[in-house]
Amino acid sequence: MPLTLTILGAGAWGTVLSFLLEHNGHKIRLWSRRHDQSLAATLEGCPIIVSAVSIKGVPALARQVRQIGLAPGTILVSATKGLDGETTCLASQIWQENLPEHPVVVLSGPNLAKEIKAGLPAATVVASHQPDAAQTVQQVLASERFRVYTHHDPLGTELGGTLKNVVAIAAGVSDGLELGTNAKSALITRALSEFTRVGTVLGGKTETFFGLSGLGDLLATCNSPLSRNYQVGFRLAQGQSLETALAEIGETAEGVNTANVLFDIAQQKNISMPIAHQVYLLIHKKVTPSQAVEALMERELKPETPGA
Ligand SMILES: NC(=O)C1=CN([C@@H]2O[C@H](COP(=O)(O)OP(=O)(O)OC[C@H]3O[C@@H](n4cnc5c(N)ncnc54)[C@H](O)[C@@H]3O)[C@@H](O)[C@H]2O)C=CC1
Ligand SMILES: O=C(CO)COP(=O)(O)O
Fold first, then answer.
1. Residue 9 C-alpha to ligand 1 middle, in angstroms?
2. ipTM beyond cut 0.90
3. Annotated catalytic sites, by residue?
4. pLDDT digits over 151-195, tens only?
5. Cβ distance 171 to 221 under 8 Å?
6. How far is residue 162's CA from residue 200's CA, in Å, rounded to a whole number?
7. Nearest ligand to the C-alpha of residue 214?
8. For residue 254, which atom of ligand 2 is closest to its CA?
9. Ligand 1 center from residue 11 Cα (angstroms)
10. Could you say which of 1.10.1040.10, 2.40.30.20, 1.10.10.10, 1.10.3210.10 is the CATH number of the domain covering 159-297?
11. 227 within ligand 2 shell (Cβ under 6 A)
């Protein structure tokens, strides 16, 4: 049955999600902070609200939506991949705190917006503690060009999509320095162990990090110049400053903020995150790209323990 749905955030991802939903026959109200639109009117009567704003916009927007109020049963879908700098919370946690009575569904997967916009096939995950809500979103969003899987681990699903952005910066550095395929394979594999380690401490399930929203998204973003986070790393390796790289990319690269928040989390919880640590040092100009590689290669020798 065709529905009227709201998408909050008219950036690259919000726009492509609206194309996918319109393709399935649904009517879309696309809200942007830049347009003179009433948020209350945009939300009214919509059974599903999709948020695709950058993490920095989520806390204020979630408070606004709470003040307006939603009809009982309205589902909130969070498509943001980031960590809030102030609270270290994920976007879905911010939404759930503000909308405690409403089902929250996390949407995350290897989903480079430009490929999906071009009509290329892709798959994603919708995860929630409320399986009915995840199934509803699956039915509404799935099509012959966008395969949607449900999942029961929203925290792990969202962490996979969020943590891989930091690794994508490192992968961009690796390619920018022309370190070759062996180096990048090692980087991606060790990074998967690293983010499984922090992800499970934060409450995600180990197996989730080996699925579409973990390994899947890691492979997509670490191997595609379409990834803005990869582009940040690539440009840093070519000698651009972070400020120039971000300005030229022009869209959100969540990995930069995530590296900062992750550094605080790793310190607080005493978790070893060597790759994320070097990314943090690099974006703060404490090491050069070559020094970051050297530091990773010269760490104390140890046995390999995949996934840990
Ligand atoms: N572009 C992609 O391929 C994908 C992006 N994502 C995630 O979706 C989120 C949005 O990314 P994009 O649309 O690509 O970025 P974008 O830079 O194209 O758009 C960002 C959106 O967030 C809004 N926004 C930014 N700061 C805000 C603030 N302070 N208050 C309110 N709204 C604010 C902007 O107005 C815009 O609508 C990010 O978390 C990203 O990681 C997830 C999957 C794929
Ligand atoms: O999350 C994404 C693909 O799944 C988009 O990656 P970037 O934000 O690095 O472009």
1. 7
2. yes
3. 164
4. 999 999 999 999 999 999 999 999 999 999 999 999 999 999 999
5. yes
6. 14
7. 2
8. 8
9. 5
10. 1.10.1040.10
11. yes
